[in-house]
């Protein structure tokens, strides 16, 4: 059945419309401000999108009613969602290609989820039946390899031959229109010569595609697909006038953009999420807003979490209390810098908070939310682990009556016994952030975290981040340093005492006594502060005395309790950092500064700025900052004196050095591998003596092997490590854990 003629509609010339050069989703309300006014006055619409799906068809129907009533004609080119198996099947034989492509397209035709979706799909099915909408499918073909067509562009024409062309990253899908904060660039044929040329290029490009004349791209008509759409979605309608406007343009009915209410989570202007961040948020939503973001350091966990707050807050009509917890005060302030960008006014809670009245603010917010005070149904508290665990905050949290979301940064810390009991059922919604959630030598604590937060919504490892350009590549230079004779004697003495402190627990497993743990920390200090590191550092850094953006990272072994909000350094830590500062500043005349807990937040802010500019400050000599989440993207060369066997620590340290920064093509990491003695002395040891030294050797190698694995110069760095493996015959020795590792 062909639909009756539509009612006559008066059209404006495109030149009478206020068309911007760029639109960003959500920020500009693309549907209302771009598609609708143009489609209302267009006679033809040509569109090349990303993937074909029923969701894409539903989104395309947005704003289409006036276009339909103009008698508008539309052509659509889309790409099938091909699986790896699909591509392999196609590449086996040309004859199978069309069947595989058709099958891939057909499986994306889902049943409509609601009446509105059904109505929109019905309209498109009728347009196809009336030959007013034609669809073709595109795939790329190059040297026998099959791919998916991803170009996104569109062309509108009006009654006066004015043309508007656009291109950009935004797919016409529901996700792109509502969550994927992306942009489109727009060109108008009448504005200037440059725009006119771009418009002509877009028109010609589309015509080449439509007529299957573009290089390395196959564009085909699949009648069966159109027939399936008609069969699946078409209902009997007397006239296009029977379609109700409100089923297509909810956002159009909204008046011009209202002023954003205060303290209601919103996506900032000019903000874009990467696809992996969007996927993480979508997966979190599917898991009832509970889960884990396992993302490499430097890949945007904070921004992803803040966008997740926006998603959940919108889902709950902004009736939500958000509690964000991070280890230290300066991390709270770092979060605050980003939180305020999302139109959130956080309550900043810790002992020396700049908000002196934070307790009153929290009490008032809990009360207002409970009473449902208009405009006060959302609030956000950002605090330290210690303040969160304190009686005052815990008492206020238990008084919250509405929806609550707990976000824990560096969530591995909450596997500790002193914090686990603060992971209570009060929070319906939960999000853990960590590059290394698994706790070192603490299976029970690790399991507690997974039990509370749920499954991983994303795993975005450092390897993938480097490959996809979200972190910079790096070169790794392991430097072999041996303990001094006196240090080796102390180390061996501690080892003998530690062995005596190993006991068998009730589960039949070896376990270290508290005394043994203290001795292990004291032994680790010897490695962290090995004196020979300093002379090797001086030799290495001589090549960089005229460079900038250098970090020298000194060792620290003091364990912080959960009642501490600042990460202080003790006498042993200061001794090494003072030695390095004197050497670089006085002996080598470099412009250097310490970066420790002794500097307050304002001083740190100034130092980071000076360091980034690289004019008055060449190097930072730091302690603990790489473990604490301090963000200094401009670090180009790092000398890591701190030795650690904890994967959580060394993985984080590496990730923070690899953050992207302008002019930073790659990073360089110097890592000081501590061995009991020079390698040339090892062959003279007895078998028993060599075995006793394997603990330290193996522990140092585990870190070095991980660093070398992803290094740009992996062959070179592994060559150095092979010298250690060969000397200690590690290729042939089975190393048994015996409970006395560091």
Automatic annotation (TrEMBL):
Pfam entry (one): ResIII
Domain Helicase C-terminal: 536-702
Record keywords, A-Z: ATP-binding, Helicase, Hydrolase, Nucleotide-binding
Claim: Cytoplasm is one of the keywords in the record: no
Highest taxon in the source lineage: Bacteria
Family matches, as SMART domains: DEXDc, HELICc
Record protein name field: Type III restriction enzyme, res subunit
């Amino acid at each position: 059945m062909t639909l009756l003629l539509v009612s006559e509609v008066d059209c404006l010339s495109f030149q009478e419309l206020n068309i911007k050069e760029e639109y960003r989703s959500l920020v500009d309300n693309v549907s209302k401000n771009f598609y609708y006014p143009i489609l209302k006055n267009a006679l033809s619409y040509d569109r090349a999108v990303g993937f074909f799906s029923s969701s894409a068809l539903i989104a395309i129907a947005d704003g289409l009613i006036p276009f339909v009533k103009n008698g508008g004609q539309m052509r659509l080119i889309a790409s099938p969602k091909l699986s790896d198996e699909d591509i392999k099947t196609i590449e086996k034989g040309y004859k199978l290609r069309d069947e595989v492509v058709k099958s891939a397209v057909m499986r994306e035709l889902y049943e409509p989820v609601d009446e509105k979706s059904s109505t929109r799909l019905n309209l498109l099915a009728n347009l196809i039946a009336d030959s007013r909408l034609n669809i073709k499918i595109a795939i790329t073909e190059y040297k026998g390899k099959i791919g998916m067509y991803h170009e996104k562009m569109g062309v509108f024409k009006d009654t006066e031959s004015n043309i508007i062309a656009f291109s950009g990253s935004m797919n016409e899908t529901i996700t792109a229109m509502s969550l994927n904060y992306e942009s489109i660039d727009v060109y108008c044929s009448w504005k200037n010569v440059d725009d006119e040329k771009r418009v002509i290029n877009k028109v010609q490009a589309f015509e080449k595609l439509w007529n299957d004349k573009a290089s390395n791209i196959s564009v085909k008509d699949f009648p069966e697909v159109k027939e399936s759409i008609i069969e699946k979605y078409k209902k009997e309608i007397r006239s296009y006038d029977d379609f109700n406007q409100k089923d297509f343009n909810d956002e159009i009915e909204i008046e011009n953009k209202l002023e954003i209410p205060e303290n209601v989570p919103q996506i900032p202007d000019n903000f874009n999420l990467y696809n992996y961040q969007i996927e993480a948020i979508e997966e979190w939503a599917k898991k009832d807003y509970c889960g884990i973001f396992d993302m490499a350091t430097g890949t945007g966990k904070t921004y992803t979490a803040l966008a997740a707050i926006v998603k959940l807050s919108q889902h709950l009509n902004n009736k939500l209390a958000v509690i964000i917890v991070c280890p230290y005060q300066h991390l709270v302030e770092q979060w605050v810098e980003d939180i305020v960008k999302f139109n959130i006014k956080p309550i900043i809670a810790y002992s020396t908070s700049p908000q002196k009245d934070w307790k009153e603010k929290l009490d008032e917010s809990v009360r207002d939310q409970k009473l449902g005070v208009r405009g006060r149904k959302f609030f956000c508290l950002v605090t330290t682990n210690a303040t969160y665990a304190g009686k005052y905050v815990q008492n206020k949290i238990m008084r919250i009556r509405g929806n609550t979301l707990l976000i824990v940064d560096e969530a591995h810390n909450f596997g500790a016994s002193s914090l686990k009991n603060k992971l209570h059922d009060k929070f319906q919604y939960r999000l853990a952030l960590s590059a290394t959630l698994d706790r070192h030598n603490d299976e029970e604590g690790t399991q507690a975290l997974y039990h509370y937060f749920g499954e991983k919504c994303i795993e975005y490892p450092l390897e993938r981040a480097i490959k996809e350009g979200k972190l910079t590549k790096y070169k790794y230079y392991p430097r072999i340093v041996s303990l001094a004779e006196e240090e080796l004697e102390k180390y061996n003495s501690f080892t003998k005492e530690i062995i005596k402190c190993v006991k068998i627990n009730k589960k039949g497993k070896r376990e270290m006594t508290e005394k043994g743990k203290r001795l292990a920390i004291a032994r680790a200090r010897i490695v962290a502060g090995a004196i020979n590191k300093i002379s090797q550092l001086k030799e290495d850094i001589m090549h960089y005395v005229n460079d900038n953006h250098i970090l020298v990272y000194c060792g620290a072994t003091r364990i912080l309790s959960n009642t501490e909000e600042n990460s202080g350094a003790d006498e042993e830590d200061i001794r090494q950092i003072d030695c390095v500062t004197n050497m670089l500043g006085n002996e080598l005349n470099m412009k250097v500064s310490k970066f420790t807990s002794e500097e307050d937040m304002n001083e740190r802010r100034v130092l980071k700025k000076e360091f980034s500019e690289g004019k008055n400050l060449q190097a930072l000599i730091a302690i603990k900052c790489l473990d604490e989440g301090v963000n200094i993207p401009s670090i180009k060369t790092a000398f890591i004196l701190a030795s650690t066997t904890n994967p959580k620590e060394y993985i984080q340290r590496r990730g923070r050095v690899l953050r992207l920064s302008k002019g930073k093509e790659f990073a360089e990491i110097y890592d000081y591998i501590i061995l009991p003695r020079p390698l040339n002395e090892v062959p003279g040891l007895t078998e028993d003596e060599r075995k006793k030294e394997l603990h330290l050797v193996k522990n140092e190698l585990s870190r070095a092997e991980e660093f070398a694995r992803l290094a740009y110069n992996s062959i070179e760095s592994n060559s150095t490590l092979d010298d250690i493996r060969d000397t200690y015959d590690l290729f042939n020795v089975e190393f048994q854990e015996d409970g006395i590792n560091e």
